[in-house]
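Hello forum,

I keep getting stuck at the same step: I have a sequence, I want structure tokens, and every attempt I make locally crashes halfway through. Rather than fight my setup again tonight, could one of you with a working pipeline run this one for me? It's a single chain of 239 residues.
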Amino acid sequence: MGDRSLLQILTRLPAIFLKNLAFFAKGGVTVLVFLMLLGLWRTGGRLFQGVGALFDSDASPPEINVRTPILQQVRNASELTTAIFAMEAVVPTQQDRKVGNITIGQTKLLYIAYGEVRAGVDLSQIQPEDVQTTENTVTIQLPPPQILDSKIDVNRSEVYDYDRGFLDLGPDVAPQLQTLAQRQTLSEIVTTACEQGILTQANERAELTVANLFTNAGYDGVTVIRASPNLQSCQNTAV
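Reply #2:
Ran it on my machine without issues. Output:
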């Protein structure tokens, strides 16, 4: 009985030994792979640092175009309003009701309008060649002044009188007459502003405003060149 047990154990020894040997072989491969990856990581880190240092040493200093930030700073101001003309006007309007060539009724509307005209320079029109810099000085060529906006202030305007005539035979056209009165008033206000030199005033004040802008920004010398106003263009705005 004992001899058989000993014989069985001796028979099974090769299988147990081979199984354990395989286990240790697998474990050794895993450790070997881990050590290879660790070495590659360390070597790769030093390699990347060396490549990075190589590129850093050859990098050229950045170039700065001084005119670019100046131009951007001016353009950010967009439309620079430097003159405002305000006027109040009384405008009569009327419309007839006719049957054939015979007028049977007439409607009259008297409108009191308050309007404003803004003039200045559109700084977004400045081009790179309009800005010249030397050390701590800057020279800027301004675009010509123009009418930037004109409007009727409806909150300060009103219909003073509305009359449809005898037996109210005149047409009921209050909204149409009011719109016509506003259009005529606006045209008259713009014409008057142009005649009183609003573009010249806007040009002179724009020069002072832009000069102060760059002086406060730290420039020692600031030269602002004005463009002549187009008076014909001002009059065309009123049409």
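The helical segments are 2-58, 67-76, 174-195, 198-216, 231-237. If your local run keeps crashing, start a new thread with the error log.
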